[in-house]
Design a protein that fits this description.
Blueprint (H helix, E strand, L loop, with lengths): L12 E6 L2 E4 L13 E2 L3 E5 L2 E4 L3 E4 L3 E5 L4 E4 L11 E4 L3 E5 L2 E4 L2 E5 L3 E5 L5 E3 L11 E5 L2 E5 L2 E3 L10 E3 L3 E5 L4 E5 L10 E5 L2 E5 L2 E4 L2 E4 L3 E5 L4 E4 L11 E5 L2 E5 L2 E2 L5 E2 L3 E5 L4 E5 L10 E5 L2 E5 L2 E3 L3 E3 L3 E5 L2
């Protein structure tokens, strides 16, 4: 199914749609999902993800690809040292970080990693960086004033680290200072969740959507919280109009945009719904839906708009896509 059924609009949602436009761009060189790409200069860098495999059906990927905006083309970059899916990419002015994620091999598909790899602006090779305090994946990560923030996601719940059920959602916030090369604890987020999305607005990291994975099932969230690293404080903001997990988000023009996602259970499907959040009024409104509904996708802001790439057209690890759309806000 392409989307879930309609829901009642809460009081904080605006019924009018922003008159932005979608257009199709150069497709990715391969179909991939569960990605967290980043803008590095006026380029998009994508590393890792879940890809098709002729032997096992699916696999993690070591591949790095680079979108050159001036040429409207994708080119290959250096491979990651190991094949990963779900690594979080965060760009500083002079370096790109690939953080955590999973290794998939004969011992299990969900071997969570604490590894960090760094790519300099010369784009020649990934090198090892300061590891996370513990394995982590499916988190939200970004940077403010050169400080990297990693929040939420999942980590091993015990000694086992091979299957998805070996992990649990966390509310931890981790901060990395490039000057010292050290990770430290920030204030935990109010909500433990995985597969959320986030973007920076006004010096705060806004975290939206996601899901809780428990023994009772997987439940999507509409929760929206903002982290101020200067004060080490979280605040609650208007929730999304609809609970969406496995979505993507990006900021453009002091607004936050959220795209797609998936839902499991009786209403299993992939979302086409997309939204814009206005921080000045603490309100959401609908925008034109994704032309191709999908989850596990990435959203990256460049000068011409928000590039929405990859993902999967069916729930779970099926229907991987090479799709590349551009959303131009009004």
């Amino acid at each position: 199914m392409s989307s879930v059924g309609a829901v009642a609009w809460p009081r904080h949602a605006m019924a009018a749609s922003e008159p932005g436009t979608w257009s199709i761009q150069a497709p990715l060189p391969f179909a991939v999902q569960e990605i967290y790409p980043a803008a590095f200069g006026e380029r998009i860098l994508l590393a890792g993800g879940i890809v098709d495999d002729p032997d096992s059906g699916i696999a993690g990927s070591p591949r790095t690809v680079i979108y050159l905006q001036d040429q409207a083309a994708w080119v290959d970059g250096p491979d990651l040292p190991i094949a990963l899916h779900h690594p979080g990419l965060v760009a500083l002015p002079d370096r790109l970080f690939a953080i955590g994620g999973f290794v998939a091999d004969g011992r299990g598909f969900w071997q969570m990693q604490a590894s960090v790899f760094i790519l300099d602006r010369d784009l020649k090779a990934w090198t090892p960086g300061p590891a996370l305090p513990s394995p982590r994946a499916e988190f939200v990560a970004d940077q403010i004033d050169g400080q990297i923030i990693v929040t939420g996601g999942r980590r091993p719940a015990g000694t086992s680290n091979r299957d998805y059920g070996d992990h649990a959602d966390v509310d931890e916030t981790l901060l990395f200072d490039p000057a010292t090369g050290r990770w430290q604890q920030g204030r935990p987020s109010p909500t433990a969740r995985n597969s959320a999305a986030g973007a920076i607005l006004g010096g705060r990291l806004h975290v939206v959507g996601g899901r809780r994975s428990t023994e009772g099932g997987i439940h999507n969230l509409a929760v929206h919280e903002a982290y101020d690293p200067a004060a080490d404080r979280w605040s609650e903001r208007a929730p999304m109009p609809q609970a969406q997990g496995g979505l993507a988000a990006a900021a453009f023009g002091n607004r936050l945009y959220a795209f797609g996602g998936e839902v499991f259970g009786a209403r299993s499907g992939v979302f086409k719904e997309s939204w814009v959040y206005h921080p000045n009024t603490d309100r959401w409104e609908a925008i034109a839906p994704l032309p191709l509904p999908r989850h596990g996708l990435g959203a990256v802001t460049l000068a011409d708009g928000i590039h929405v790439i990859g993902g999967a057209t069916r729930p779970g690890a099926e229907g991987r896509s090479d799709r590349h759309d551009l959303y131009r806000p009004a």
